Amino acid sequence: MSMSEASLPDLPTLLPHRLEMERIFDAPRDLVWMAWTRPEMRIQWMGPVEWPMLSGTNDLRVGGLWRACLGSATTEDVLWQGGMYREVIAPERLVFTFRWDESHEDGPPADTLVTVVLHELPDGRTRMVFTHEGLKSQRSLEGHTHGWTSTFGRLGVWLSQKQS
């Protein structure tokens, strides 16, 4: 699968303080679900190219907590994030809160909400509809747009490697 088959980075829908993205992955829905929910898989693709995930945990159940540490690709800086699972409907819907541990981009941390919906396509591919809402400002929206776009590019490459 080429990068274009993992879906070219479509332009995200930018609504005030809400990011919506859609991607088509040349991978079965179960694999995409596992990529999101298994820490040993998530660590291999999560985070933008310049801030890959270094470690993470999750308690995959409603009310369970998740944590991730992203590390700079050029310095020794790290960024911690985490949240709580609100909905877990395998293998189709994952809803969780998302919060940076420290001030990031534009002030003190605040809870935001991420929704991932996976649709199984007849040809075996998966359509992912991703929403990140509650972002505090245009600056935060732009930063998260860049981060998630890069992250989903990494996910597409990782899924393609898992399929070969």
Walk me through this protein's architecture.
The protein is 24% helix and 37% strand. β7 and β8 form a beta hairpin. It has one domain: 2-Layer Sandwich (Alpha-D-Glucose-1,6-Bisphosphate, Chain A, domain 4). It has an 8-stranded antiparallel β-sheet with strand order 1-2-8-7-6-5-4-3, covered by helices on one side. The chain has 164 residues and is an alpha+beta fold.
User: What is the count of distinct domains?
Assistant: 1
State the distance separating the first and last CA atoms. Answer: 8 Å
CATH H level, superfamily name:
START domain
* SS elements, strand count: 8
Instruction: Detail the poorly predicted runs.
Output: 1-9, 11-15
How large is the count of helical segments? 3
Q: What can be said about the biggest beta sheet?
A: 8 strands, antiparallel
Q: How does the overall form come out from the CA principal axes?
A: globular
Q: What oligomeric state best describes the polypeptide chains here? A: single chain
Helix content: 10-25%
Which range does the strand content fall in? Answer: 35-45%
Assign the CATH topology.
Answer: Alpha-D-Glucose-1,6-Bisphosphate, Chain A, domain 4
What is the CATH C-level name?
Alpha Beta
Q: Give the radius of gyration.
A: 15 Å
Q: Give average pLDDT, whole number.
A: 90
Alpha-beta classification: alpha+beta
Q: Major sheet: order of its strands?
A: 1-2-8-7-6-5-4-3
A few lines on this structure:
With 164 residues, the chain is of the alpha+beta class. Helices cover 24% and strands 37% of the residues.
